[in-house]
Amino acid sequence: MIRTALCALVLAATAGHAQDVATAPGAVLRALDKFSGDVVDIRMQSGRIAEFGRLAIVLRECRYPAGNPAGDAYAAVEIAEQGRDGIIFSGWMIASAPALSAMDHARYDVWLMRCTTS
């Protein structure tokens, strides 16, 4: 319920402020293992798989405001867990609002830091 309200608020705030976006060839994701305390930055290319613990992370696409690579990035990500059927997360992650579309997992957190342009 709260997540839906936050999404509506973000959409309302950005209505009428459409920006041109550019697609980046990759992204930097940050992953946390809540049990061990390990934090890792994962640099990945679109369409590739990165592994962190028992997770397999696929970056589908990363976008950022055209002409501003340091601007707010958002990425389409899919995450599967070894030993579980199906995908445990599929959606868009937003760098400036990691809790807006978060992966709900007891052990791991994964969030978007930025797109990579080179």
Summary keywords:
single chain; 118 residues; mainly beta; three-stranded antiparallel beta sheet
List the helices and strands and how they pair.
Layout: H1 2-14, E1 21-24, E2 26-33, E3 39-45, E4 49-52, E5 55-65, E6 74-81, E7 87-94, E8 108-116
Antiparallel strand pairs: 1-5, 2-3, 2-8, 4-5, 5-6, 6-7
Walk me through what this model shows.
This protein has 118 residues and is mainly β. The protein contains 1 helix and 8 strands. The strands form 2 sheets. Strands 1, 4, 5, 6 and 7 form a 5-stranded antiparallel β-sheet that branches. A hairpin with a 5-residue loop joins strand 2 (26-33) and strand 3. The chain starts with a helix and ends with a strand. Residues 11-16 have low confidence and may be disordered.
Order of helices and strands: HEEEEEEEE
Percentage of β-strand residues: over 45%
Which spans of ≥5 residues are poorly predicted at pLDDT below 50?
11-16
On the 0 to 100 scale, the average pLDDT is 86
Strand tally: 8
Oligomer: single chain
Broad structural category: mainly beta
Give the helix tally.
Answer: 1
What would you report as the Rg, rounded to the nearest angstrom?
15 Å
**Helix proportion of residues, in percent?**
10-25%
Amino-to-carboxy terminus distance: 38 Å
Largest sheet: 5 strands, antiparallel
Q: Outline, from the CA principal axes?
A: globular
